[in-house]
UniProtKB/TrEMBL annotation:
All residue ranges annotated as the N-acetyltransferase domain in the record: 49-178
GO cellular component, as recorded: cytoplasm
Keywords from the named record: Acyltransferase, Plastid, Transferase
Protein name (Swiss-Prot/TrEMBL): GCN5-like N-acetyltransferase
GO molecular function, one term: N-acetyltransferase activity
Tree of life domain: Eukaryota
InterPro entries xref list: Acyl_CoA_acyltransferase, GNAT_dom, NSI-like
Organism of provenance: Schimmelmannia schousboei
Length: 178
């Protein structure tokens, strides 16, 4: 399994202001009338750690991720600095179509994990919209060093969002049990 550790290029000319405070928020309209498979859907996001784990598991299954024990997923979410969900509503039910979570030292550094968009909604700009919201929330919290881990096939996606690989020769290291 290979990953790239990627750093966000912190440029002072970027305006990352947001009027959404880093608190539990629900049902913030993000994209109005997104066309998807002949339907027009309103896409919402929420900053919320009360996530339906079975819906998240189905979302991760849809992109072929290896299943993880739900108890550990719940623990990871509970200990995350930020979780953001993208969803649309049908019959008053939230349909989870995107997710990202962030860990942080709450001062200087944050790492983005588990960024996922349902395959039926990929290629519509929702990954970029999701990442924009993650970065806005982190910049709102005055986090200046933002990293993420990405599979090699999606590195170019993150590069287009302003992330760079190995700035100043910094190399990530991993320890795995044998």
């Amino acid at each position: 399994m290979s990953f790239w550790k990627i750093f966000f290029k912190n440029t002072s000319d970027m305006n990352w202001q947001t009027n959404i405070e880093l608190e539990n928020t629900e049902n913030i309209l993000l994209v109005k009338h997104l066309e998807n498979e002949g339907q027009y859907l309103d896409i919402y996001f929420s900053i919320d750690d009360d996530i339906n784990l079975y819906d998240l598991e189905k979302l991760c299954d849809s992109v072929g991720w290896v299943r993880r024990p739900l108890k550990k997923v719940k623990m990871a979410i509970d200990h995350s600095f930020l979780t953001i969900c993208l969803f649309y509503k049908s019959c008053q039910k939230k349909n989870l179509i995107g997710f990202a979570r962030v860990t942080s030292d709450n001062s200087f550094n944050a790492t983005i994990w588990d960024v996922v968009i349902h395959p039926k909604f990929q290629g519509k700009g929702l990954g970029k919209v999701l990442m924009d919201q993650v970065i806005k929330q982190l910049r709102y919290s005055d986090i200046s060093t933002i990293t993420l881990f990405a599979d090699p096939q999606v590195v170019s996606f993150y590069r287009n969002l302003g992330f760079i690989t190995d700035p100043d020769g910094v190399k990530g290291m991993f320890w795995y049990p044998l």
